[in-house]
Amino acid sequence: MQEAEETLHFLHSDGIFSMSKMRVTVAGVPGTAAVKCKYGCVLVPDCGLDSALKQGLYDLVVIPGGEQACNTMAQSDKVGRLLTEHVKGERFVAATTSGPVVLDAHRINYLQRLTSAPEFADKLRKHYSYYNWEETIVDEPGKMITGRFSGTILEFGLALINHVADKKTADKVSFGLQPYSSV
């Protein structure tokens, strides 16, 4: 979690992970201080990044979007260390919208294919030619999972649950998100 993070990315991901009964640890890049997200929502991380690094490997590390937040995470050696350790440990690493810029800054690429918000495609193509930008909502080539739009964050989260937990759990969470009908 970092200042100017996309509120929607964080809240929806955290919410659907909780619905799947996955244990979630929210690590703050600057530490445990409250973080003001992109649109003014204030969130408090569970721990700082130093503490998260000491806890060992997680099943999944998610980099949410928010261009300013992602630029900061792209420059953080600790974020790079967290991601690199998870790649070496063959754990899932995921990012959505502008998050792939963070993966790229730390040279995280399992199968050299990803998706991102359209406004970052040219940057990823120009500076990081080893990425093959795909025009998909969620790209899932192995242990690196990327999402494209804020409006598809639920699909992104469900894909993560499908990989980290299982399809049955993802289907159960998806069913719980369906709107009720009075018909």
Description:
The chain is of the alpha/beta class. It has a four-stranded mixed β-sheet. 40% of the residues are buried. The mean pLDDT is 84.
Strand content: 5-15%
Order of helical and strand elements? HEEEEHEHHEHEHEEEHH
User: How many beta-strand segments?
Assistant: 10
Helix content: 40-55%
| Low-confidence regions | none
Rg from C-alpha positions? 16 Å
What's the quick description here?
This protein is α/β, with parallel strands linked by helices and 183 residues long. Helix content is 42%, strand content 15%.
SSE order and pairing:
Layout: H1 7-19, E1 27-28, E2 35-36, E3 42-43, E4 47-48, H2 49-54, E5 60-63, H3 67-74, H4 77-88, E6 92-96, H5 100-105, E7 113-114, H6 118-127, E8 132-133, E9 138-139, E10 144-147, H7 153-164, H8 167-176
Parallel strand pairs: 1-4, 5-6, 6-10, 7-8
Antiparallel strand pairs: 2-3, 9-10
Helix pairs in contact: 1-7, 7-8
Entry keywords:
single chain, 183 residues, alpha/beta, 4-stranded mixed β-sheet, two-stranded parallel ribbon, 10 strands, 42% helix
